[in-house]
Amino acid sequence: MVILACNTASAAALPDPALDPGRRPGPDQTAVLAGGCFWGMEAIFEEVRGVHSVETGYAGGSGATARYAEVSQGTTGHAEGIRITYDPGQVSYGELLKVFFAVAHDPTEVNRQGPDVGEQYRSAIFSDDPLLQNVARQYIAQLNEAGSFAKPIATQLESSARFYPAEDYHQDFVRRNPRHPYVLVHDIPKLETFRSTFPELRQ
Length: 203
What we know:
two-stranded antiparallel sheet; 6 helices; globular
């Protein structure tokens, strides 16, 4: 059993979403997710099969304040997040959500992830698609009912998928800085957990 660093859920034991559009051929789609520092989130989803690109950025606030210096103050309404562009024929939205909840972050923490504190580090799913909003809502309810985590899931569902890319130095941060102290302590363990838990979803 693989125990996540910051919660009591076993990644391998999380159920698949009962409601999921499934894999279906079609044009590329996007998903916007937030779960603490965006460096580690980006690194995990870059390795998911069917994912063509992952950008770090800011979601939930306005374009006028979508800059790291302002977002890091925790007063802009933004969350550090990622925008995933993926092939729905190779990976479903529900599968992306399972990775998000299982290994990418601790969805029970409120306005923080580990040492990072503030609303900019909140757990959130951003979508303006009613179908995908419902998939996320139903999955959260499913995980809570199953008692998958020791505490209730704190992930917020936010209706706007507006996303503003972060500064260039934040893009591909883990790949470019694998020996950075924060990366070694907080991101590499989650990346290794993803690799061992979801081999069938790796590129």
